[in-house]
Write a structure and sequence with these properties.
The chain is mainly α. Helices cover 74% and strands 4% of the residues. The protein is built from 16 helices and four strands. A hairpin with a 6-residue loop joins strand 3 and strand 4.
Length: 394
């Protein structure tokens, strides 16, 4: 009896491994290299910001920014152009150090592992656009912070936290209609049966959407994705062309049911509140650090733009420390969204096949260590999600 069970069990294990489309070793190497690149990127930012403060180069950058500003707008109104010029200098320095790593992680690795369709020219264009968008956002954000510091040197962190909470809401609302089209083609979904199916799913789930759209990822990547972006009047369903080409309508429906769950469960707003709280705490710590160390770094006071690297390091420390907490919350939301998708579609078979297909196509890592999950994973591992669907099916 024991032998009769052992042989089929061994055979079934081999069969499952053969049927599993995910190459675990290859996926593990890919994700390990991506994680290493992200850690090095963080280290570069710390070296840059810390180096600017400890060497006095930040003061030199401020002096150069003031010199340019005085030529443009002499007199008392040079504050804003000084801030803009300093932020530009800092952004360029950061980009110089980030480009090689960005090329390795965002272009070379993707091509090495067969995940990219993007040409080098397209990567350069996207990188340039991303730098431009980031610079404009940095101009606005830093200008608000330092204007508030000048108005209230002791309590600026309160008003800055409130201002950034509003900015997060605005960007979440406008990103699908302003930022996304800068990098991808987005057009109405022309498969009427699928469009009707997804709109009916949204109505059944109680999530109001303005439409379903095809998301042009195929020119850049072989990966597949789907999303429900925006809030309020800009909420729309996005399905990548790479997914439309390979997945059944049932699989796409269950994937979108998962995305709809985040809106039904108000996960987007929970995330905004959590992120706003982190920013507020970061600004509070930055205000204390600037007040304590301004003299040590030859700053003219807390409102000196030369202290921006110190402000960024202090504020960023709070978010960095809370990364495991944020990821734990996110994994909980994702598990709830999976349960919602299974309940609303009652189609665990489609969910399982979609997860396996996504895992193979996106080179998902099936068995990350607990430590890796704790630090880096915002979603549960693929095997856990499939196991939950199999239990639901049973």
């Amino acid at each position: 009896m024991a032998c009769s069970r052992t042989a089929p069990d061994r055979f079934s294990v081999r069969l499952r491994r053969h049927q599993n489309p995910v190459n675990e070793d290859r996926a593990s190497r890919y994700h390990r290299l991506k994680r290493q690149a992200s850690v090095i990127s963080l280290a570069w930012s710390l070296v840059l910001l810390g180096g600017l403060m400890t060497t006095g180069l930040s003061v030199s950058l401020r002096n150069a920014a003031e010199s340019i500003s005085l030529r443009l707008i002499p007199g008392r109104w040079e504050f804003l152009p000084t801030v803009l010029a300093y932020v530009t200098f800092l952004s360029i320095l950061n980009e110089i150090g980030s480009v090689p790593l960005g090329f390795y992680s965002g272009f070379a690795l993707e091509r090495r592992y067969g995940l990219s369709n993007e040409t080098f020219g397209s990567w350069v264009r996207d990188r340039t656009k991303a730098f431009g968008v980031g610079l404009v956002l940095a101009w606005g954000g830093v200008s608000i912070i330092y204007a508030l510091i000048r108005m209230s040197p002791d309590r600026w962190w309160l008003s800055a936290g409130a201002a950034f909470a509003l900015l997060i809401i605005g960007l979440t609302n406008l990103a699908p209609v302003i930022l996304l089209p800068l990098f991808y083609t987005v057009r109405p979904l022309d498969r009427e049966s699928l469009r009707a199916r997804l709109m009916a799913l949204a109505q059944r789930a109680g999530a109001r959407v303005v439409g379903a759209y095809e998301w042009g990822l195929g020119d850049k990547t072989k990966k597949a994705n789907a999303a429900l972006t925006g809030i309020g009047g800009t909420r729309r369903i996005l399905v990548s062309d790479t997914m439309l080409a390979e997945y059944s309508e049932e699989e796409i429906e269950v994937i979108l049911a998962h995305e709809l769950a985040h809106h039904v469960h108000h996960d987007i707003w929970k995330g905004i509140v959590f992120e706003s709280g982190l920013i507020l705490a970061g600004f509070f710590l930055a205000s204390r650090v600037l007040a304590a160390l301004a003299g040590s770094f030859r700053l003219r006071g807390v409102s000196d733009i030369a202290g921006l690297p110190l402000l960024l390091m202090a504020a960023g420390a709070v978010s960095l420390i809370m990364v495991p907490v944020a990821h734990a919350m996110s994994r909980s939301y994702e598990r709830n969204a999976d349960r919602f998708a299974l309940a609303v579609t009652k189609n665990p078979s489609a969910f399982i096949s979609a997860m396996r297909r996504l895992g193979a196509q996106n080179l998902a890592e099936e068995h990350p260590s607990k430590l890796v999950q704790w630090i880096f994973y915002s979603h549960p591992p693929l095997r856990e999600r499939i196991a939950a669907a199999q239990a639901f099916k049973a």
